[in-house]
């Protein structure tokens, strides 16, 4: 296993992060333990969680699994989405953050969270309030590093600016969606993270299963989450995505690779990415993603794979600069 520094923290994490969203849901405690053990055997020391995964059960299970080796692993959790029926049991207000972190610490049976994410940008809470709450938690030792998930680049930069101005704990990591059919992060988020020295742990490198080669055009008639989950239907509903996934899967198999492993290796090969988050509902599924560790992703191979899907337009929409017909760079 290769280990990389997480942003500028000096903390070394495995080049794959395991996401525990299945713990307590699709994976019961026995399967979760088997998944965790297989990750540790592979050298993974980085585990991503959230307070809303399986209504808190994922944190409870992860807490039991790490109990004997807490100082050997790096864990995350998140705050924002509803954790109860109360009007204030959601969001990134100080009111909610301070209660949510205590609940996560109890469920995980730990004294600190290594990385704590704002799970989404809060449109109704002043960002400075959220950052001050995180800074207080850093000073108290309850979290070590603040981070953000599902933020736009301008929102991350605004947070970095506020933290610098007010001498608050600086964000160390972002968590965007990134895979072969969802490449918007390449436009601003990934270049920004590289320039700012932020760690990047992108989720959904398999496109919700689309890039595993198991579904292709039959997905709509299958009882898979791509066919039944409204969130995934909204993400992956365009026909070109299925065409690209079909072509990509054929490309992988012709070369003797698991499509899942190649998809993860592609996401991991972007120079701004620290560790893609892989997930699984069974050890068999996990093995497919672990195959990524055996693939050497050369620039030529990455370019071949990238050609299966449209490259997103540049942030300035000056697409002429991506051709030979441009005014020139310094």
| CATH fold category name of the domain at 3-175 | TIM Barrel
The global form is globular
Poorly predicted ranges: none
Report the total helices.
12
Write the CATH architecture name of the domain at 3-175. Answer: Alpha-Beta Barrel
Defining traits:
12% strand; 330 residues; alpha/beta; 8-stranded parallel beta sheet; two-stranded antiparallel ribbon; TIM Barrel; single chain
Protein described:
- With 330 residues, the protein is α/β, with parallel strands linked by helices.
- The chain has a domain at 3-175: Alpha-Beta Barrel (TIM Barrel).
- It contains twelve helices and ten strands.
- It has helices spanning 29-42, 57-66, 94-108, 127-140, 153-166, 189-196, 225-228, 230-235, 239-254, 259-268, 283-290, 299-306, and strands at residues 3-5, 12-14, 17-19, 46-48, 74-79, 113-118, 143-149, 173-175, 199-200, 277-278.
- Strands 9-8-7-6-5-4-3-10 form an eight-stranded parallel β-sheet, with helices on one face. A two-stranded antiparallel sheet has the order 1-2.
Would you summarize the structure shown here?
38% of the residues lie in helices and 12% in strands. The protein is an alpha/beta fold and 330 residues long.
List the helices and strands and how they pair.
Blueprint: E1 3-5, E2 12-14, E3 17-19, H1 29-42, E4 46-48, H2 57-66, E5 74-79, H3 94-108, E6 113-118, H4 127-140, E7 143-149, H5 153-166, E8 173-175, H6 189-196, E9 199-200, H7 225-228, H8 230-235, H9 239-254, H10 259-268, E10 277-278, H11 283-290, H12 299-306
Parallel strand pairs: 3-4, 3-10, 4-5, 5-6, 6-7, 7-8, 8-9
Antiparallel strand pairs: 1-2
Helix pairs in contact: 2-3, 10-11
